[in-house]
From TrEMBL:
It is found in: Cell membrane; Membrane. SUPFAM superfamilies: ABC transporter involved in vitamin B12 uptake, BtuC. InterPro entries: ABC_BtuC-like (IPR037294), ABC_TroCD (IPR001626). It is a multi-pass membrane protein. GO terms for cellular component: ATP-binding cassette (ABC) transporter complex. Belongs to the ABC-3 integral membrane protein family. The chain crosses the membrane at residues 20-40, 60-84, 96-119, 139-157, 178-196, 202-219, 226-247, 253-273. Keywords: Membrane, Transmembrane, Transmembrane helix, Transport. It comes from Candidatus Eisenbergiella stercorigallinarum. Its main location: membrane. The lineage of its organism: Bacteria, Bacillati, Bacillota, Clostridia, Lachnospirales. This is Metal ABC transporter permease. One of its GO terms (biological process) is response to zinc ion.
Length: 275
């Protein structure tokens, strides 16, 4: 036991691990809170679609020698708006729209990479995730935007709750459902872009989906689902990072494996409680 605590103490002495934990905990909380609403609205895969759009934007930014996040954030936010409008307009179902954007943006990103400098270390870190790639400026931006997401979420908690469960009733009671659906899309887009550096474009959607699904296996009320999802997300991140440090495994994959383990534990617990 003392050796484990010694390893943990050593892990947190490294500046890159301190940066990763600071940004990662905030991003994990944001992803879990938004994930509950997205799963309930059957938009679970929007995170996957937006992450692929983000990779395409990052590839273009890299080719043009522009600041990656300065390009990716507005592009992904715009993609979130378009996905929302396509789904609401009925021209494309939600899953079809996400699949179209996901594959299309990823193809554009791969094409841009292939005809320019090729896959460099920076783009590789966005695709697969790398805590070593998080600079001080990345962490500062992540903290600022994550706090903005959390503040907006809690300020408009009641409205987001209403549009999550019954948009028609929300409109009837005077809630601007379209505006708050758009707000949910924007918050999700920002969270996805921030999490790509740590988790990678291929795995960031799992940070949104698994904690929410695991919490729903046991909890029955919206507020308790949110609290449980946030706790699971932060715990999964911390344990995944520890596993990554101890066994030299990829951070993003380690976090996802821990989240899957939590999901199966909560699934079994939910079945026991329902008997």
């Amino acid at each position: 036991m003392t050796e484990i605590f010694a390893y943990l103490g050593e892990m947190l002495t490294y500046p890159f691990m301190q940066r990763a934990f600071l940004a990662g905990i905030l991003i994990s909380v944001c992803a879990s809170l938004l994930g509950v609403s997205l799963v309930l609205k059957r938009y679970s895969m929007i995170g996957d679609g937006l992450s692929h759009v983000g990779f395409g934007a990052l590839a273009i930014a890299s080719a043009l020698h522009l600041a990656p996040l300065a390009v990716a954030v507005p592009v992904v936010v715009l993609a979130a708006f378009v996905l929302l409008r396509l789904s609401e307009g009925g021209r494309l179902k939600g899953d079809a729209a996400v699949a179209m954007f996901s594959t299309g943006a990823l193809a554009v990103g791969v094409m841009v990479v292939s005809v320019t400098t090729g896959m460099n270390a920076d783009l590789n870190s966005y695709l697969f995730g790398s805590i070593l790639a998080m600079s001080r400026s990345d962490v500062v931006l992540s903290v600022v935007l994550a706090f903005a997401v959390l503040v907006l979420y809690f300020v408009f908690y009641n409205q987001l709750f209403a549009v999550t469960f019954d948009p028609v009733f929300a409109r009837a009671t005077g809630v601007r459902a379209g505006f708050f659906n758009s707000l949910l899309a924007v918050l999700t887009a920002v969270t996805v872009v921030l999490g790509m550096r740590m988790m990678g474009a291929l795995l960031i959607s799992s940070l949104i989906i698994f904690p929410a699904l695991a919490a729903m296996r046991v909890c029955r009320h919206y507020r308790t689902v949110i609290l449980a999802a946030a706790l699971l997300s932060v715990s999964g991140f911390a344990l995944g990072m520890t596993v990554s440090f101890l066994f030299a495994t990829p951070a993003g994959a380690s976090i996802v494996v821990v989240d899957i383990f939590f999901y199966f534990i909560f699934s079994a617990l939910g079945k026991l409680l329902s008997r």
